[in-house]
UniProtKB/TrEMBL annotation, chain A:
It holds the Pfam family BPD_transp_1. Residues 90-305 form the ABC transmembrane type-1 domain. The lineage of its organism: Bacteria, Bacillati, Bacillota, Clostridia, Eubacteriales. Belongs to the binding-protein-dependent transport system permease family. It is a multi-pass membrane protein. It comes from the Bacteria. The keyword Phosphoprotein does not apply. One of its GO terms (biological process) is transmembrane transport. SUPFAM superfamilies: MetI-like. This is Protein lplB.
Automatic annotation (TrEMBL), chain B:
GO terms for cellular component: plasma membrane. CDD domains: TM_PBP2. It is found in: Cell membrane. The chain crosses the membrane at residues 12-37, 69-96, 108-130, 142-160. Pfam families: BPD_transp_1. It comes from Ruminiclostridium papyrosolvens C7. SUPFAM superfamilies: MetI-like (SSF161098). This is ABC transporter permease. Residues 73-274 form the ABC transmembrane type-1 domain. Belongs to the binding-protein-dependent transport system permease family. Its main location: membrane. Keywords: Cell membrane, Membrane, Transmembrane, Transmembrane helix, Transport. It is a multi-pass membrane protein. InterPro entries: MetI-like (IPR000515), MetI-like_sf (IPR035906).
Amino acid sequence: MGKTNTAVSKALPNKLPKKGFGHYLKRDIYLYLLLVLPVAYFILFKYVPMYGIVIAFKEYNIFQGVFASPWIGWDAFREVFRSDDFYRALKNTFLLNGFDMIFGFPAPIILAIIINEVRSVRYKRISQTMLYLPHFLSWVIIGGIALQIFAPNFGMIDTIIKSMGFKTIPFLTEKWHWLATYTGIGIWQSAGWGMIIYLAAITGIPSELYEAADVDGAGRLRKIWSITLPAIKPTIIILFILNIGKISMIGFDRPYILGNQQVKDFSDVISTYVYRVGLQSSRYNIATAVGLFQSVVGLVFLSVTNWIANKSGEQGIW
Amino acid sequence: MVYKTSDKVFNIFINVITLICVILCLFPVLNVVAVSLSSNSAILASKVFVWPVNLNFESYKAILKDSTMIWSLVYTVIITLVYTVIGMFLTICAAYPLTKQRLKGRNAIMLMIIFTMYFSGGLIPDYMLVKNLHMLDSSWSLILPGVLSAFNLIVLKTFFTSLPESLEESAILDGCNDIGVLFKIVLPLSKPVLATLSLFYAVGKWNSFMDALFYITDSKLYPLQLKLYQIIVNSQTVDASIGDGNMSQNLLPESLKAACVVFATLPIVLVYPKLQKYFVSGIMIGAVKG
């Protein structure tokens, strides 16, 4: 949208006599018609469930329905905050996301810098295609692959470890090993795809900078350190801040599919806890209360980190 | 171009590191393919790495004989298609009007949409809604609740905004209304981004597992991912109900499980190389805004 257009459309309404909404409705009737279904979608599937949050404050009775069920105030929240399982799920959510931050966050940056240094265009393109692939596999498929290659005795990893003379490592059944496996699989799945945004930032670096460095006799490593890294620093900072904003939120598929009974001390997170308590045990008010708690905490984290992003001079999401 | 010796060494070093990354990326997938094509004795003797040992197709024959597996595949394709078509239709309908600065209420609607990206009712209220709409154990529960993505909507809106407005103005002078302009002028100019977003929708649905786990209890309505989950993680037999199936007893589950994984992955891997560039361009449009 050009700047002149914005100026014109802003200036016009002041000069013309004020008209009612009916006038605009009539003028843009086709645009409003197009919006009817999408807006109806958001109201029905996004805002009606937001109203459904009242379940957290009710003793939900399946025969009475949401409306007629009696109010219980904050009882559900009191029960949640007394529950050890809830604190474990909360701790694990931060634990798993924290490991993803520490080990998973740098991976795409390093990968992007390596790939950017590949000189053969063809080799670079083929490598990129291969590295993006895991991003398109579902977590069920990745879970299936993980069960295969980490299987004790005959799995690929175990075979390699044994051939080197080490003992079987319980990758999926001992909680600390599981944590490493969970983090590693996350890197495997997302590092390739995550590097796209850094590669784009690197592409935007003016080639004059590198040429000037060549004249000064800078080596390849020197150029990575003094040109490439500083140039993508803003991208790194903004993505890091946004990631911190999402640290209290966790998807369902990955911990649910990779987790198992033996490692539930680490693998039971908020999303799987809500599923277990809500849908499997039908404790609707407890699960809704936990969900609401997570939504609110998530919104607070996002708002704060976004505020920091804007303060630091980078463009935030809002 | 002439390289210095140190440059040559560096190039070799970088190429080797890249190769190692690619190998790490592909070996788990290749291993599963190899296992699915190997004999049970070879698997148990840890002989299978990335090349099949005692090549055989028994596992695949077993899957193809299992009518529920084939049905699950067809069913998932149908769900994915319907979901993508409805999703794209709604995305287009929403994105185009919201590019018009003159539209009254535009900012309020945008705010309403963006808010849903950061706050939601949560699992139980979603479940209650689906239940109250009588969509539990119905294919619609897999299609409707997530059919319009706010992220995709913003990507498309950003793209529409970048189109030159003069083209639309000339069409309006020729007597086209807004809907006519959208279909005759705007959409034909947007084919690449429409392809990209369709792919986002289609892959998202193909890979989705959570909604089926929550809303579907009837195993006849299991989409492929949920069926796969039951097979590989819960080790349920491929099909216990069908008499002639029975293969789970003759075959070691490992090669069969591996074959099921490959079976569900194959459609993605087949279309992936051709469509990859659309994904990358889509993520770049999205990165501008969100």
